[in-house]
Structures are given as structure tokens and as C-alpha cells.
Amino acid sequence: MAERAVLAAVVTDGDVSLDELARLADTAGAEVVGTIVQRRDRLDPATLAGSGKLQEIRRLIEELEADVVIFDQEISPAQERNLTEALAVRVLDRTALILDIFALHAESSEGRLQVELAQLRYLLPRLRGRGVEMSRLGGGIGTRGPGETQLETDRRRILRRVSKLRAQLDEVERTRLVKRSGRSKVPVVSLVGYTNAGKSSLLNALTGSSVLVQDQLFATLDPTTRRRLLPGGRELLITDTVGFVRRLPHQLVEAFQSTLELVGESAVLVHLVDMTDDEMEMHIDAVRSVLDEIGAGDIPEVLVGTKLDLGRGSFASLHPDAPMVSSVTGAGVDDLAERIWDAVSERFEVVEVVLPFGAEVERLHRLADVLEEEYRQDGVRLLVRASHAEAQRLAPYVVSLRSPEEPRPPSRGSVRRR
After folding, report:
1. 243-285 pLDDT tens trace
2. Which of 27, 45, 287, 358 has its CA 20 to 30 A from that of 212?
3. Cα three-residue angle 357-362-366, rounded to 5 degrees
């Protein structure tokens, strides 16, 4: 049976919407039975809300037979203890809820290690007074993952576990770096966006793959990379990354640093926006804030409106140069692939080389823009626009080096740089 949850928020300025928190709770398996909001000049340092509002929340809990109260703010360990005592039910904050969803959806061994590390770091300052509560098996939302196996141990053992997890993740990262260094230099593009913006669906549409698609927040956590072939034999590697939300918990950003570094190494970021969402502009700002936090804010970005089959809202008027696609009907997908390549190749260098007959010529057709090609007795003369790394690799064959701007095909759409 689903846990019955009351959602709460204490607001000191502006408006608040609990719609996203409700979707997060639903994804975690809770049934939202009530919501309550208090507006105050400042947060109560002990309990966030005032004593009168706490009494109102407790009456609501009793009336609705709720099992848990989830606050939209991050609450301190002391506030959590005070609120639990005042409300007589379990109290979670937004961070604990998101961590729980990640524990629910992590499938790869690396993903599970990352989630466990994030949860333990979140729970360490909250251990006091929670050993009995959190050691129960099947304790509900907020108790998945390490809560069932680690929280009955003392702080020293948990710290040792944290150190071990970090060492394991470092080893996973070293293995990934070795594998990455051995790959061909096919340009890598990352799909980024607010959670449930349609990244997995677009990856499937672009590459013909069958990545899991669900109408849930954080349905997929582990990055998935697939190959896209373009006309002329050119190739792109397209990676589907974890979705972002407002105030993504810093524990997750730190724990998933090695995974998020894949985003930072991309040639271009394809920023997906759900055009049917009324809060799409806020979602754009939230994604860019996280990208800045992980050091990916300077990577060229192609903004894309998704779910064209359901409508375009105000997206087209607010972002007139941005492409719009439907992963369901395929509308705009092929054009988007070309725009992505244009964005990738915008900083390519133009070099003239003479190569021996064979595989090197085929390689350049896959990795670069071949502008001219001439077969001669001494080999194949090619004028190509290639990445800096590829141009360096071709140095022994270079006849001349030209400006990246000359020659240049007409642009197919704007690329944003921040």
C-alpha cells in the first residue's frame, strides 16, 4: 500500500508551486493526500513553520491519516528532529526524497555506489536519535538503499564505508578513462535538460535505440551512449544524461561527479525543453545553473523544444531560432541531427592533407567534414574541417592549415555560448 504523504512548504518571498514536489513524491511511490503552505517573513530556525501552523499540519495529518510529511525546503538535522517530535510522523525534506528516488532507480553498479555515497553523506549528521527508526526493514520512503544495511552501525563504521565507496568509484573512473582513451575520436554530444524533458525518447529517435522511456522523474540515471550516422558517413556519439531539477541536492552533484564529467567533456550540449510545461523558462534556468555548477557552462549549447506533437506553447515566440522536434512522430529529428553536427564542426580547423590510400581516408569521412577530395598518384588530397585533436593527429600529412572560418557552409541554426 502506498504511503500517504502531506506536502508542506514555508515561503518567505514569491510564490511557490508544490506540483514538482508532488511528482517527486509520486515517483517515490507515495500518495499525496494533502498540501499546506505557510508564508512568513522569515523561517523559524527550530521548525521552519510557526507553532500555530505546526498544529494545523498535525490536525491535517490526523484527519487524512498521513504517514509522512515532506517539506519542499532542505531541513537541518535539528529541524528534522524537532518537526518529527511535533508532528508525530516521519518528516522528510526535498533532498531526502530525491535521494530516495535515485536509490529506487539506480541499476548499474556505479550508479548504486554513487547513490549510496550520497545517501550516507546526507544521513551522517542525522544519525543521532535515528538508529532505531532507520534500521527497520521496509521503513518506507527515505529508508531505501543504505538505510536497511548501514544505519545500525556507528559513525566510525559509516565513515569507513564512505571511504571505501570513494575508492571504488575512483577505480571505476580510472577504468572509464582507459576505455575512453582507446576509443576513436568520434565527437560526443550530451543530451541535457530538466527531468522528464524527453531525453531518452530523443536518444531513441536520433539513434534508433530502445532506451527505457517512462513518464516519471529520474526514470533513467545511468548515462547511455549511442551512435548516430549522418549522410556522407559522418558519425556522432550521443549520450543521454541524468535529468536535472531545481535545487539538485549537492550530495548528488558531488557523488555523481564522475558521471557528470561526461557532460563537461562534450563537444556540444543539446538542451531539451518540454514545450508543454508552463514552467519551461524556470526549467531552462535551473538546468543552466547545474551546468555552471559542474563546470559545463561554457560548452556550446543547442536549445531544442521537445514534444512538438503535443503543442509548442510560447516556446517558438520566446526562442524563435531554436529547433522543435517530436520523438513520437519524428518531426524535426533529422534536421536536428544536422544542426548538432553544424554546432560540433563550428570550431573545427580546416586543413589540407595528402593521405595514403586506405583506412585514413574513410576515417576522415566519418569524423570530419570533407570539403574537397582528389585522388592522385601520391595519395588522396583532402581538404577537411576537423576537430583540433584530429588536426593534430593529421600533422604529419598536413599540406596547409587554414582559418576555421574559411571555407564555411551556411549555418542551419543558432548555437548559444554562455
Report:
1. 788 777 777 777 666 667 778 888 899 999 999 998 899 899 9
2. 287
3. 155
Secondary structure (H, E, C), 253-269:
HHHCHHHHHHHHCCCEE
> Residue 179 burial by CB count (10 A; 0-12/13-18/19+): exposed, middle or buried?
exposed
Whole-number Å distance between alpha carbons of 7 and 37: 8
Give the chain's largest Cα–Cα span.
90
Q: Which of the listed residues 158, 179, 200 is the one where a domain comes to its end?
A: 179
Cell numbers that stand for 332 in this block: 524535426
Same domain, 229 and 330: yes
What contacts 71, CB < 8 A, 6 or more positions away? 8, 9, 10, 48, 83, 91, 92, 93, 94
Q: At which residue does the C-alpha cell 531518452 appear?
A: 200
200 in the same domain as 147: no
User: Could you tell me if 354 and 376 are in contact, meaning their C-beta atoms sit under 8 angstroms apart?
Assistant: yes
- 308 and 211 together in one domain: yes
- Asked if the structure places residue 412 within a domain, the reply is no
- The span from the CA of 174 to the CA of 271, in Å, is 28
Q: Residue 53 has what pLDDT?
A: 93
Please check whether residues 254 and 300 belong to one and the same domain: yes
CATH code for the domain of 25: 3.40.50.11060
Q: What integer pLDDT is reported at residue 392 of this predicted model?
A: 83
C-alpha cell at 251: 550530495
In terms of domains, do 339 and 351 share one?
Answer: no
Write out pLDDT tens, residues 113-167.
888 888 888 888 877 555 444 444 445 666 565 554 445 556 778 888 889 998 9
Count of the separate structural domains present in the chain: 4
200 and 292 assigned to the same domain: yes
Judge if 19 and 86 occupy the same domain.
yes
User: Which of the listed residues 73, 94, 115 is the one where a domain comes to its end?
Assistant: 94
- Spatial distance between the Cα atoms of 344 and 269, rounded to a whole number of angstroms: 9
Kindly report, residue by residue over 365-396, the tens digit of the pLDDT: 888 888 899 999 889 999 988 887 788 888 88
pLDDT recorded at residue 144: 60
Classify residue 138: in a domain, yes or no: yes
Q: Which three three-digit cell numbers place residue 271?
A: 538542451
Q: How far apart are CA 146 and CA 120, in angstroms?
A: 7
